[in-house]
């Protein structure tokens, strides 16, 4: 039996408020625990988006009564809320800035809208960028100019990881995360994921070329965190004429990574660094006492959506081989998950910024 620390997923789309038919604070935290995740950081592109005190309260009230694992909620950068979100920094996971097109309404196209956020948001509080390609280069320049650390979400391209590497070497305060789907899938896999429904392959950032995927593996030392970008949408929505982008990921991350450990592509220590040590430091997360995850290392099994806790009902990794079954999760002294069953009540989860 392998014993891991409680895993931290810094990038999760909870969908509550506004789209609880896809997921809510109850189902998402069940999925987290089943995946060995004891702390998740929730993204603000809900309906309404989380961008001021009233909407932050809306999300945190739902989380307080429903979450079964620990959490914090990001606030979103809007065109005119820099002072407001800065004042909310102590209660938030951090600030999320959407600088490229994605799901939801939060988007800051014009760079003049970025400046007030870089100036007002506390330097010690995390700022996370959805920024791809050249927009990412611009975000890193803002980080250097305003001397504010930034964390780049879901790096997927060779040009991105190479620039982050160079920026780190220059001493720019940039960290980054990579999602399992960008490590294990390329655009060549879209037909197999799709089963005739092209919407199932839609995700932002898009699945990239095999050369991009290879560059993430070659530059793994530049990758600070793994993050799921768990983005549940129902199959009906994915198969519609206007499919929303996003993959669920909380329950498939660990088995995919442990399979890669078994295949000699990275070490167990690499995984623990990126799913516990580094995110804990980057996002200023408190210690969770008496918290650990027990994994049956030798268990090899087939990933099946029908066995998952997420409400969205599918996974792009259907039928893939995973390694390592999460047998037991102990969270703050209480067995929260054991042998496929959730054992803590709704509301057991704590706001780590509470
Ligand atoms: O694929 C994605 N889905 N990328 C994002 O940035 C947002 C997410 C979502 O909220 O569905
Ligand atoms: Zn996301």
Characteristics:
5-stranded antiparallel β-sheet; 31% helix; binds (4S)-2,6-dioxohexahydropyrimidine-4-carboxylic acid; 6-stranded parallel β-sheet; 12 helices; TIM Barrel; 19% strand; binds zinc ion; 354 residues; globular; alpha/beta
What report would you give on this structure?
The protein has about 350 residues and is α/β, with parallel strands linked by helices. It has a single domain, classed as TIM Barrel. Helix content is about 30%, strand content about 20%. The chain has twelve helices and 14 strands. The chain has helices at about 25-35, 55-65, 80-90, 115-120, 135-145, 160-170, 180-185, 190-195, 210-220, 235-240, 255-260, 270-280; strands spanning about 1-5, 5-10, 35-40, 70-75, 75, 95-100, 125-130, 150, 175-180, 225, 290-300, 320-330, 335-340, 340. Strands 5-6-7-8-9-10 form a six-stranded parallel sheet. The protein has a five-stranded antiparallel sheet with strand order 1-11-12-13-14. The radius of gyration is 19 Å and the shape is globular. The two termini are about 35 Å apart. The mean pLDDT is about 95.
Radius of gyration: 19 Å
CATH topological fold name: TIM Barrel
Structurally, the number of domains stands at 1
Count of separate DSSP helical elements: 12
Strand content: 15-25%
The total count of strands amounts to 14
Q: What is the name of the CATH class?
A: Alpha Beta
Subunit arrangement of the protein = single chain
User: Structural class per helix/strand content?
Assistant: alpha/beta
* Ligands present: (4S)-2,6-dioxohexahydropyrimidine-4-carboxylic acid, zinc ion
Strand order of the largest sheet: 5-6-7-8-9-10
Q: From the 3D coordinates, which CATH architecture would you assign? A: Alpha-Beta Barrel
Helix content: 25-40%
List the secondary-structure elements in sequence, H or E: EEHEHEEHEHEHEHEHHHEHHHEEEE
CATH homologous superfamily (4th level) name: Metal-dependent hydrolases
